[in-house]
Amino acid sequence: MIITEDDEEEISELRKNLFNEFEMKDLGLLKYFLGIEVLRSKRGIFMNQGKYILDLLAEAGMVECKPADTPIVQNHGQQIREGAKLTDRGRYQRLVGKLIYLSHTRPDISYVVGVVSQFMHSPQEDHWEAALRIVRYLKGTTEHGLLFEKHGHLEIHGFTDADWAGNPNDRRSTTGYFTFVGGNLVTWRSKKQKVIALSSAEAEFRGIKSGLTEILWLKRLMTELSLHSSHPCRMFCDNKAYQKIQSNMIELSTWKWIDTL
Fold first, then answer.
1. Are 138 and 160 within one domain?
2. The domain containing residue 246 runs over which residues?
3. E-assigned strands of 125-261?
4. Would you write out the chain's pLDDT as a tens digit for each of its 261 residues?
5. Whole-prediction pTM value?
6. Of 111, 145, 179, which marks where a domain is finished?
7. Count of domains for the chain
8. Quick check: is 247 in a domain?
């Protein structure tokens, strides 16, 4: 059990009540929990899954493998190919399941894990090789993780992007976003869109919608926790078409009407 609170007296009282009700032992400050390591310093709190990665390398027999510079090749084109050789589904699902858990502290593999997760029902040899490349990338980045520092503010902002028709099988786009609170990365996601976008602007617009939804949820959560910020929330994107739509209220109203059909 993890207890978090900014009031030491409240923690002591809760701990006392738990000890009276259950047989429990106080292990002190959180250091390791379900494969996640927590390190503290004057700079802040650092979380990573280095030991979990080493265990994964040992289980996959890749302790001596050559590290990869990137988790996936550019323009990978991963898809289900007719007549391609299948790989062991159980083995593939176990490996990808572990990679999904690793992505809790590794946003840099979130996208590629989402890619290989699409083939869990019928993995092929190419998909297995793509999953192993992620493992080889992790071999060279075992010390990567998340650092939480104090920046003196609680500003919320996010970044969003989308690839148009990136999936070769169904031509659907993939949305990606990540959000910061107080200068620290707190949430991120990479997911295929539910419908087929007819243009790059539409794909980006849907991606921005997902990012804004996340920011509004964070804003409401912080309000419930009595954490208030005077700074406006900000969303960043690099799509010129969307920026022009946003700057022209007539075009924006037309887009909203089309989007609700």
1. no
2. 154-259
3. 145-148, 156-163, 174-181, 184-192, 234-236
4. 888 877 888 888 988 899 898 888 888 888 998 889 999 999 999 999 999 999 999 998 999 999 999 999 888 888 888 889 999 999 999 999 999 999 999 999 999 999 999 999 999 999 999 999 999 999 999 999 999 999 988 999 999 998 888 877 788 898 999 999 999 999 999 888 888 988 888 888 888 889 999 999 999 999 988 888 888 899 888 877 766 766 665 454 554 544 443
5. 0.81
6. 145
7. 2
8. yes
